[in-house]
Amino acid sequence: MNRTASAVIIGGGISGVAIAYNLAKKGMKDVIVLEKGYLASGSTGRCGAGVRMQWGTELNCSFAKYSIEAFERANEELEYDGDIEFKQGGYLIVASTEKEEIQFKKNLEVQHRLGIPSKFLTPKEAKEIIPYMDESKITCATFCPKDGHLNPFKTTDAYAQAARRLGVEIMTYTTVTGIKTENGKISGVQTDKGFISTPIVVNAAGGYSKHIGELAGIDLPLYPERHQILVTEPVAPLQGPMYMSFSMNIYLQQCPEGSFIMGRGDADEPHDGNINSSWHFMEEMAKTTCELLPLLKKLNVVRQWAGLYCMSPDRQPLYGSVKELEGFYLACGYSGHGFMFGPATGIVMAETILGQPTTLPIHTLDKDRFARGEEVWEPSVV
Amino acid sequence: MLEKTGIATEQDLAGIMPPKERLAQGPVAVIECFQRIPCNPCYTACKRGAIQEFEDINDRPVIDVDKCNGCGICISNCPGLSIFVIDETYSDTEALVKIPYEFLPLPEEGTFITALDREGKAVCRAKVHKVLNSKAQDKTPVVSLIVPKEFSMVVRCFSIDDFYSDNTIICRCEEITLGQVRELIRKGYRSLDEIKRISRAGMGPCQGRTCRQLIMQEIAAATGVKMGEQRMSTFRPPAKPIKLGALLGGDDHE
Questions:
Q1: Chain A residues with beta carbon closer than 8 angstroms to that of B241
Q2: Out of A40, A290, A301, whose CB is closest to B248?
Q3: How far apart are CA A66 and CA B120, in angstroms?
Q4: Are the beta carbons of B207 and A303 separated by less than 8 Å?
Q5: How do residues A123-139 score in pLDDT, each as one tens digit?
Q6: What does pTM read for this prediction?
Q7: Cβ atoms within 10 Å, residue A328
Q8: Interface predicted TM-score (ipTM)
């Protein structure tokens, strides 16, 4: 199988299929998506699937707001025959230190400037939203009713089906083994199923983005970091919003089908692509949850799993072209929020590849910002 | 009882069952012939002399299980359709049951049917392993079925319809029907994990203990990729559901 494409997108997660959909919608023909497993088999399908507008930088707030508004319309816009199961139960983000409370107030100012309907809550008001929380553990909270949760498999499926209808070819179980360049330009992609001639390659490979960079001879300042999640048996509706704390390092929500999904960060997680499960996580997760939300100690855990964050030095994505290699584009380094930025990634990447002005600004998110000392730090991540 | 219903009782069967040790060694014929009638083609058909010579043509056949190698020639030669070959060594969990079958249409190899017991009651789902219908069978085809081992001495006939219908729930935790799984396979979801992720089959409290096998069977039936060659999903802790509170250790023994 030797063939030609206008653009090859590496990675069949939310980013890859959303970029392909937008390119095809804007009229590009012969777009190919390459995925080494099946769609959403990597970070997208392993994520906590929460989406929120409550961020600390204007940039993240606007990317998130754009994406959440797109998720609200997605079933109709993508003409999906299923349901992406978007539940907007809100995010309750709690502060447990004074320093955190000051940061939250700053975040709210940024959010309100952009028209995000978030609000400040006292511990008592927060307890009205999640009655079984131990409010003595917190100093304040913020809440945004537009935040929520959706099904990452179905969302990816919705984009993939829409992209296919527009002529995009999605090749699953196809591994990229090399990227060919000529005179500083992309000329093709070698896969285990043959060679594809193309002037454009998009690196949307999630946890494997650094490796794809290496195949193109481009050193990317990224590393994969394992993050773990557990899920409980389904129970009757208990909790509307996501419960999240940055300082206590936890996020926890009830999915529409009734199970609770919860995860936490850990400074000691391996950086080598390992996605095995650890007992340490299970214990720590149980400890934090039972302390903050005591009622939940009765829930039965049915499974834990792990996936990879693609970490960048400032915890922000790398978007756009690479000056050393013409035709090589980056959509990676999300550091844990790639799924929720999917629709925004799709549109800005398609626009930048086609040389159009971007709907949202991405010029500060190029790969060389670190060399220039222009990192864009986000204060609010787990 | 046998005279009235034509169905062998446990007592009837006790006298003709091959010993467990013999069953563990490989295929062997089981002759469920309980009536004295003038008939001896089984004896003349067996080339190994495993079916002993009849003193009186009305005698019931007696088989020497150590001489029998389970070749199955006697199956088609019995006018009463009362000989079966049982192979309990087919796999760790499954046995082969070879059955004389004189109905039309014949089942196709690889399809699923409803296995029946001696009374004609549905027992389980079984897969058709082979259909022998050459000159040697002389219009008494022999169908071999793959059945769960515990049913090797129960299944003695089958009906050609699948034991499962599109409405059969195959993931009980998430209530996913066979019809839904078949539809997903038709749409192009071709591995256990793909089906699990798009439908939630296997995501419930039992974590796929029942549906995993059944979904893989369906994928095999639809795509021809054998179960052993399909991609398995990842096994993750905990092995069985455990309360968050129990993970804390300490005093809480709820």
A1: 233, 300-302
A2: A290
A3: 63
A4: yes
A5: 999 999 999 999 999 99
A6: 0.84
A7: 24
A8: 0.92
